[in-house]
Each structure stands twice: as structure tokens, then as C-alpha cells.
Amino acid sequence: MEQALNWETFWWTTLGVFLTLSTFSFLYKDNPFYKFAEHLVVGVSAGYFVIILYYNGLRPNLLDHLFMSNTWTPRFDQLYYLLPLILGVLMWARFSKKWSWVSRYPIALYIGIATGIAIPLEMRNRVIQQVYGTVGQTGFDFAKPGFFGIPSGIWDVILVILVIASLVYFFFSKEHKGWFGGLAKLGIYTLMIGFGASFGYTVMARISLFIQRVQYIKSWWEMFT
Amino acid sequence: MKRQLPLLVVFLAGVFMVIQYFVPAEFSEKAYEFLIDWTIIIGIFALALGIWSLIRVSYHKIKTKQEGYFYSYVALAGLFGMILFGFTFMGGLESYMFTHFFDHIMIPIQSTMFSLLAFFIASAAYRAFRARSVLSSVLLIAAFILMARVIPMGPLSDAVTVVSNWILLVPNLAAKRAIWIGVGLGIVATALKVVLGIERSYLGRD
User: Fold this and answer.
1) Are B181 and A124 a contacting pair, CB within 8 Å?
2) Most CB within 10 Å of its CB: which of A102, A131, B82, B123?
3) What's the whole-model pTM score?
4) CA A222, CA B8: separation in Å to the nearest integer?
5) CA distances from B166 to A152, A205, B36, B121 (A)
6) What is the chain B residue with the closest CA to A126?
7) C-alpha pair distances (Å), A153 with each of A74, A133, A149, A156, A189
8) What ipTM goes with this model?
């Protein structure tokens, strides 16, 4: 049985397909269609983030502390939230050449808090956890089979050596000569395989997106048939 | 004074946040949550600066009738349209126009822009694949094996799956871990430079 065409869906999808093709037209060269889509997405994305940050950031973190929910009746139990509000408004001193130095205070507080949080967190998550993952969590089981019939414990030892070799490559305070240079060379080969793997994955991810866009255009075309 | 006092604020806030991480007390957690709220609020007010900058640049282009000024109307219409439809009196995040603008304007253009990179990456790949050295050949072979595994119709053979799993779990994991450790140490070193006032470029010039 033939299905009736939903005109509302049709028009919105047609707009989406038009914008998709306009963006793809950049493959030929920069042209008015691409410029139109480019400027439209800049405006729409900026507006989208204004709204998202209002609902998910400003409202729960500031307005709900200063006003009763869903009404603009002030509440007086958390007036200390006026402080971040004042600091936020001070950011706008950037608009004035004379008073722009005032905006350094909220920036300083922001930077201070962010860096203060980053020091222990980054040390734990990126450094200690990675070292623990390399040495502490690995099984070093020489009885369990691993890749290519070689026990997994041997691959674990190789993994540790390759991590050290890659770190040695990053170490430029000592000349890469002799055994140190050899280890650094092993490190650069390891890094190249890592970059190759990431590159391969990125290429395939982009191609998947391209296939998805083609399927989107195909679904629009099927509305007529 | 215009520079020294902000540097003191950075130092005090930074040191306080480092200390509170090691203090397992309720007041410490409360202070952490409160200060996180502060950073979110300050960050949102900073976003307004960016939006204002977009409006000012577009307005200036229209006013001086610069080449392609018509596109500034498009950007401003998108911005104000989205803000208008997103506010509560128009239905908020669930409003018809807001969701349809998101689904049929923002998503198609952004995904197409990302998928466009497939073509530019293919051109970069062509240049990379003309392997001229052992190192670039190693990169090429690793990339090729991974690509052969994740093609849409599934891996080419079991051998490809085994070799690509080995690449991912041995050399690739080692490289990633070394990079993460390097990045982590870099972030900590930079953060320490900021807290101690050695790095102060974020204050701008007088």
C-alpha cells in the first residue's frame, strides 16, 4: 500500500538535504552555497550553545540559588551566590578600554581554580594511572597464550619496554646516542605505529560519516519513489 | 597592583584547590563544589563576550557593506532565531522550531563538514602513502591494517583481525600511554608555572 507523503517531514528533510549538498559543494571550490551554509551553522551553533548553557549552566548553578524555581521571587538563604555573579559581570569590563584590567580578577580566579584542580587530577589520571596500567595491572602471565602463539606475559614485558622507549624519545635533555639513541629509535617506531593506527581509525570514521550523509540524501530521494 | 593582585589570586586559589584535594572532609568537598559553580558561572559570562564579538563583527560587516556582507545577515538570523526559539516563552529546549533547527540545520551541516574531511584526509593519505622512508612505511602499514579491519562490510580475514588487535593492544597502547604520561607531565608543569606566577600571558598586556 502506498504511504502518504508527510509534507512537514518532507520540507524539513529537503532543507537538510539542501544544506548537506551546499556544504559538499565546497569540494568543487568555495562558493555562495557553501558560504551560506557555513554562516548559518556558525549562527545556529552559537545560539544553540547560549540556550544550552543557560538551561544547564546558568540556571542550576546561579539562578536557582538566587531565585525560587520557575518564578523570579528572590530567596535570601544563598545570597553568597551574588559573588560569582558579580565576578561574572566583571568579565564584561573587557568591553571598556579604561576598565578592562578589572576583568583580570575573574580570569585570575578561574585560572587559579582550574590549574589547582588540574595539578593533582592530571597527575593521578594521566601519569600515575598510566604507569599503574602499564606495570601494576598487567598480568605478566607466561603460561597464558597471547598473540601469534607467544605467551601474553612476553607481550606485557614488550609493552613496558615500548612505553619506556617512547618516553625516552620525548626526552631531549640528553643526546640520542648509543644505547639511549637505540631506545629512542625503538620509541619513534612505536609512536609511528600508534599514529598510523589513529590515522587509520580517523579515516574510517570520516568515511562512515560520509556514508551516513549519502544515506540521508538517499532517504530523502526515496520519499518520491 | 593591576597585575600583582590577580597573580596573588591565582596563587591562593591554585594552592587552596591543590590542598583541598588531599583533605577528605565535608567542608573541603563543599568548597570544591562551590568553587566549581563559580568557574561555571564565570565561564558562561565569558561566553557572552564571544557572542558579543560575533554580533559586533557581523554588524560591522553589514554597516560597512564589506564583500559578502549578506552572509552576516544569515549568521545573525541563525543566532537570534535559535536564542528566541530556545527561551521558555517559546517552549524552551523542547520547542518545535528549536529541535527542528537543531535536527535539520545544525546536525546536517556539522556532520557534512566532518565528512568532508574524509576527502581531505584521503588527499593527505595519498601523500603519506607515497612512503619515502622506513618510518612513513611503518605508519602506512599500521594505518592500512587498521583500515582493512574496520571497513563497513567487516574485517577482510581473521589474520587482519589478529594483527590489528596486536597493533592496538601492544605498540599502539604503548605509544598512547607514553603520550598520555607526557601530556600529563606537561599539563602539571604548565599548571605549576601558572600557579607560581612564572607563566602570566593570560593576564594580557597593559
Assistant:
1) no
2) B82
3) 0.82
4) 64
5) 11, 20, 41, 25
6) B184
7) 64, 14, 12, 5, 22
8) 0.83
